[in-house]
Amino acid sequence: MVLPLIILVVIVLVIVFAMFGMYNSLVSLRQQTQNAFAQIDVQLKRRYDLIPNLVESVKGYMKYEGDTLERVIQARNNAVKATTVGEKAAAEGQVSSALANVFALSEAYPDLKANENVSSLMEELKSTENKIAFARQYYNDIVTSYNTKIQTVPSSIIANSFGFTPREMFELDDAAAREPVKVQF
């Protein structure tokens, strides 16, 4: 009579510890998604801070491109206001597209390309763009792991019981951001 009771207790303990492990794993992944999104925000903030400096630096050179510069500022302002992952992704597509137009137009202005301040700002923005791309990729990788974990058995039972919900991927919505930049003079 004692042996079956011991076996039952061991089985129950194994199940309980497995549930604790699944719960802790889900919490860890949820925290990683929040951290990854915060890292994207850090890089986006850096980009937002660089854009007005770039626009001010190129204004004098690109006298006939005021519309392009205005679109960059408008896209930046829209991106700053975005709060959800989807809104940020859509807004960032617009910012990337607008910045790509500025980079492409700068090729037509030799004095602008030679300006050390503008060149430095553009290099910083390109570096920041690379960091943003890496942060987005990392975020999407963590979100994929998290979403997979909450949808697979047996962790889905724990996820549903404790209110773990899927996270949204950081995807570009703006079709213009996916197209090559067209420059016309």
Secondary structure: elements and pairs:
Layout: H1 2-59, H2 66-81, H3 85-106, H4 110-114, H5 116-151, H6 155-161, H7 175-178
Concise synopsis of the structure shown:
With 185 residues, the protein is mostly helical. The protein has helices at 2-59, 66-81, 85-106, 110-114, 116-151, 155-161, 175-178.
Structure description:
The structure is a single chain. The protein has 185 residues and is mainly alpha-helical. It has one domain (2-178): de novo design (two linked rop proteins) (Up-down Bundle). The protein has helices at 2-59, 66-81, 85-106, 110-114, 116-151, 155-161, 175-178.
Name of the CATH architecture: Up-down Bundle
- Kindly state the number of beta strands: 0
Bin the strand percentage. under 5%
Shape, per Cα inertia axes: rod-shaped
Q: State the CATH superfamily name.
A: LemA-like domain
Radius of gyration: 24 Å
CATH fold category name: de novo design (two linked rop proteins)
Structural class label: mainly alpha
Compute the separation of the termini in Å: 91 Å
Helix content bin: over 70%
Total of DSSP H or I helical runs spanning 4+ residues: 7
Low-pLDDT segments: 180-185
Provide the descriptors you would attach to this structure in a database record:
disordered C terminus, mainly alpha, de novo design (two linked rop proteins), rod-shaped, about 80% helix
